[in-house]
């Protein structure tokens, strides 16, 4: 079914979904109503019961029934995939608190892989980000405690703590000969999801660090302010989704639609669609808004830390040919998790659907491949004359017969200094700006040629 994106907030969330009473299987009675079609083999039930009896009878120490059943549910879910899990009373409460946007910790998105904590992404401006942790790092020790053998929730709980307290992470990084040590100080993690700046003359830059409930509205406000600074019009925009771990699906859809426009009845602008078995999990999101940039060119930056909702936005803008994707391949989390309460205090977080880009590509374990691959490198003391992207740098001075003023030499030198500084600080961002300038020049040339064509034809006609 096709749904306008404004109706999707109550359906699902990419990283997790809290289904409220009346919508999900919260009460035992509701769960029983859906069970007639679910057949469980009595032999399997008997085998499960026998295992519990053997543990209760022969395990070296007496074991509480609650512990056994909690562990049984936890084991069932952890054996499905890395993102499905059991939430006991403590976990469920912590999850509800963390969705409010403020919590204590390091600001790091992790998953369990090969007996270690794999860093999905450090959130921007958090202790993890400032320390230099990178996507793909493997955390093997938390202080003096080995990660191997711990469950994901246990490791996450160890990383959380009182703000101001310290923790040492021992990390293995590809390409290094020995483990790295990171000493971090825990902070209250309160993420501002939108950052904006005007780069040079009328080129906008928006960085999204997460997809929260107000991210789309905050982004629209920032773009309006950028337009005002640029005298009402932006030549182009860089949308930076690097190290963005995701967030709300609805927010990702809203943001995608902000840049796509409405399309037509025969050719709608599809943003994303999902397939799953949970009622309401199969839908197609179609853009319902106008293009806020009025078709000005866009470049989207992604990297291995761009996951989940970030990949929805990048995939939508790529497949609809709305933006050029630059950077490195994204993380590849194309699954939807739904939190289904078991009772008032416990729940299961279950993978219930996969999402697909408009062209029908599943991103799960594949990721978004950039149109232009640009690795994250450090450029020190760059000689701009030897810069391989020098030929793509676009400015008025690059045009034939441009008018030269006394201030032009001074301004041009300042512009080159700014570009050199940006190149040294953030090579991927610098490259994105260079590509964006090339797109603007290409559009301007097409507009000039298009404007000349009717005049030329009319002259030919008159000559005849």
The overall average pLDDT, rounded, is: 81
- Overall geometry comes to globular
Question: CATH architecture of the largest domain, please?
Answer: Alpha-Beta Complex
Poorly predicted tracts of residues? 1-34, 382-412, 455-464
CATH topology of the largest domain: 2-enoyl-CoA Hydratase, Chain A, domain 1
Description:
The strands form four sheets. Strands 1, 2, 14, 15, 18 and 19 form a six-stranded mixed sheet that branches. Strands 4, 5, 6, 7, 8 and 9 form a six-stranded antiparallel sheet that branches. The protein is 33% helix and 22% strand. It has helices at 28-33, 42-58, 65-78, 89-98, 127-131, 152-159, 215-229, 249-260, 309-319, 406-425, 427-463; strands at 2-4, 85-87, 102-105, 108-113, 116-122, 138-142, 145-146, 166-172, 180-185, 187-190, 194-199, 203-208, 236-240, 270-276, 283-286, 298-302, 324-327, 335-341, 347-356, 372-373. By secondary structure, the protein is an alpha+beta fold. It has three domains: 105-190, Roll (Pdz3 Domain), CATH 2.30.42; 198-373, Alpha-Beta Complex (2-enoyl-CoA Hydratase, Chain A, domain 1); 384-463, no CATH class. Strand 18 and strand 19 form a beta hairpin. Helix 7 (215-229) packs parallel to helix 8 (249-260).
Summarize the structure.
With 464 residues, this protein is an alpha+beta fold. 33% of the residues lie in helices and 22% in strands.
């Amino acid at each position: 079914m096709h749904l306008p994106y404004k109706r999707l907030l109550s359906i699902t969330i990419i990283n997790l979904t809290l289904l409220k009473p009346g919508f999900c299987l919260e009460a035992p009675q509701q769960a029983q109503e859906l069970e007639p079609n679910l057949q469980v083999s009595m032999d399997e039930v008997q085998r499960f019961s026998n295992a519990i009896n053997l543990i209760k009878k022969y395990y070296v120490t007496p074991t509480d029934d609650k512990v056994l059943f909690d562990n049984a549910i936890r084991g069932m879910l952890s054996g499905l995939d890395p993102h499905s899990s059991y939430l006991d009373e403590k976990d469920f409460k912590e999850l509800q608190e963390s969705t409010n946007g403020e919590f204590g910790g390091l600001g790091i998105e992790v998953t369990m892989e090969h007996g270690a904590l794999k860093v999905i992404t450090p959130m921007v401006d958090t202790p993890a980000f400032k320390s230099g942790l990178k996507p793909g790092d493997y955390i093997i020790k938390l202080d003096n405690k080995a990660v191997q053998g711990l469950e994901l929730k246990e490791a996450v709980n160890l990383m959380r703590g009182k703000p101001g307290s310290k923790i040492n992470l021992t990390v293995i990084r590809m390409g290094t000969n020995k483990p790295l040590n990171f000493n971090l100080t825990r902070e209250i993690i309160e993420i501002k999801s939108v950052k904006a700046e005007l780069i040079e003359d009328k080129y906008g830059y928006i960085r999204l660090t997460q997809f929260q409930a107000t991210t789309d509205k905050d982004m629209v406000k920032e773009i309006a302010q950028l337009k005002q600074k640029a005298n009402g019009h932006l030549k182009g925009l860089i949308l930076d989704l690097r190290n963005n771990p995701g967030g709300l699906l609805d927010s990702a859809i809203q943001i995608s639609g902000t840049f796509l426009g409405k399309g037509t009845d025969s050719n709608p602008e599809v943003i994303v669609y999902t397939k799953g078995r949970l009622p309401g999990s199969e839908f197609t999101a179609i853009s319902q808004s106008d293009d806020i940039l009025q078709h000005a060119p866009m470049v989207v930056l992604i990297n291995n830390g761009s996951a989940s909702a970030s990949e929805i936005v990048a995939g939508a803008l790529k497949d609809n040919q709305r933006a050029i994707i630059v950077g490195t391949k994204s993380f590849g989390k194309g699954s939807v998790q739904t939190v289904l309460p078991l009772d008032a205090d416990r729940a299961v977080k279950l993978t219930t659907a996969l999402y697909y880009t408009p062209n029908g590509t599943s991103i799960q374990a594949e990721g978004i491949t950039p149109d232009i691959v640009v690795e994250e490198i450090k450029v020190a003391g760059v000689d701009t004359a030897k810069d391989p992207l020098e030929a793509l740098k676009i400015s008025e001075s690059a045009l034939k017969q441009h008018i030269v003023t006394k201030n032009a030499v001074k301004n041009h030198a300042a512009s080159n200094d700014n570009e050199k500084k940006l190149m040294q600080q953030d090579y991927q961002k610098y490259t994105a700006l260079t590509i964006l300038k090339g797109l603007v020049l290409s559009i301007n040339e097409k507009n000039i040629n298009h404007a000349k064509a009717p005049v030329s034809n009319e002259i030919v006609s008159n000559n005849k």
